[in-house]
Amino acid sequence: MHFECTRDSLLEQIQIVQKAVSARSTLPILTGILFNIKDNKLVLSSTDLEMSIRCELDVTGKSSGSIVIPARLISDVLRNLPESIVKFNSDTSNNQIILQCEKSNFNIKVLPPEDFPKIPELEEGSLLKVDRKEFVEAIKQIIKAVSRDETRPVLTGVLININEGKLKMVATDSYRLAIKEINAKTGRDEKLRAVVPARALDEIIKVIPQEEGEVKIRLTENQIAFNFNNTTMISRLIEGEFPKYQQLLPENYQIRIDLEKDVMAGAAKRVALLALNNSPIKVNIGDRKIKISAETSEVGEAAEEIDVNEKMEQMTIAFNPQYFIDGLMSVKGEKFIFEAIGPLNPALIRSQEEEDFIYLVMPVRIGA
Fold first, then answer.
1. Per-residue confidence (pLDDT) for residue 63, from 0 to 100
2. CB–CB of 291/303 below 8 Å?
3. Is CB count within 10 Å lower at the N or C end of the chain?
4. φ, ψ for residue 268 (rounded to 5)?
5. For residues 338 and 198, what is the distance between their CA atoms, to the nearest angstrom?
6. Domain 126-245 falls in which CATH fold?
7. Mean pLDDT taken over the chain
């Protein structure tokens, strides 16, 4: 096996596929990256058996072959080489790869490619396309509402619901709920539903290019694949029934206020500095003003008032400070809508600019 390419182009692709390399596996082969010359391209593959990533790269002076190189080692070596052409030559007699770059030479021990797990192709299944920027923005808006509790696996994922040319993404940790809907192009009018591990979506927003284009999503019974540029990410789906979140959405509200996002978020962040040891942040709604306050007995208290050009009923609702702030920061635009029914009912945070995003946050019970 032989090929040549620039250090920067190879390092860029390795940093992408490295995100699916197993960090704690007892199988040494899973700590490596598969290098394979296929169809006149270098194909890099990695997997931890739950998520797989495959990248293609144009190279020169190529000859066929496959090797598995330890991921961390090859990444560290390339990162410290000069920005020049790197040359790879495999030495099958000694199970090693010879890497040359200007005056640097490395002989690196490799692993047998026949031991590397087969990366699924996912050529069958339902295919849809979404705008790349819209997809990334949607993930960023809902990802914080995903649960980190591994005892409830289905909540560590994001529900993807495809219906009538729309892709709806839903995340919840039982204390808050985020819903975002974007347009999707499908080959046929079909209804699809799957729970995707949040980790896969989190990695996508780290590696996907921030430029115009589409993401192709292919869905099978137990796997999902995302394809953009020369990169394909494949993940297993999460089994289990996602909560019936629709019943949490209130049909009416007692209070509805239009507010400046930066003003409310700034006040909440400042007051939250005194909400320690699981203390809540209180939102007291009164006549033409909102008072945000927090208190921790051994530390102190903080309060801030915001003027509102509306006459409202008196109500005090308490929230987990971070959950409340996350909701505010997820909203697009300068203004948002706050809707509430009562101190013991979930409240809604909506954007004035986008009707396809909803953030619901459960209140915290406080004493009289």
1. 87
2. yes
3. C
4. -65, -40
5. 27
6. DNA Polymerase III; Chain A, domain 2 (3.10.150)
7. 92
Q: Is the pLDDT of residue 280 over 70?
A: yes
Q: What is the pLDDT of residue 188?
A: 67
Q: Which CATH number fits domain 249-361: 3.40.50.300, 3.40.1550.10, 1.20.200.10, 3.10.150.10?
A: 3.10.150.10
| Strand-by-strand arrangement of the 104-109 sheet | 60-63, 2-6, 85-91, 96-101, 104-109
Distance CA 195, CA 285 (A): 38
Provide the whole-model pTM: 0.92
Rounded alpha-carbon distances, angstroms, from residue 23 to 27, 95, 233: 10, 23, 18
**DSSP per position, 117-170:** PPPP---SSEEEEEEHHHHHHHHHHHGGGS---TTSGGGGEEEEEEETTEEEEE
Of 94, 30, 106, nearest in space to 68 by CA? 30
Helix (H) or strand (E) holding 257: strand 255-260
Q: How far apart are CA 357 and CA 261, in angstroms?
A: 15
Q: At residue 110, what is the residue type? A: V
Query: What is the arithmetic mean of pLDDT over 121-140?
Result: 88
Class of the CATH-defined domain 2-115:
alpha beta
Report the alpha-carbon distance of residue 58 to residue 36 in Å, rounded: 12
- Distance of alpha carbon 328 from its chain centroid, rounded? 18
Q: What are phi and psi of 326, to 5 degrees?
A: -55, -40
Q: Is the pLDDT reported for residue 13 higher than 80?
A: yes
Which residue stretches of the chain are H helix? 7-17, 71-79, 132-142, 198-207, 261-272, 321-330
pLDDT at position 124 over 80: no
Taking alpha carbons only, the member of 227, 291, 214, 290 closest to residue 258 is: 290
Name 118's Cβ contacts closer than 8 Å, sequence gap at least 6: none
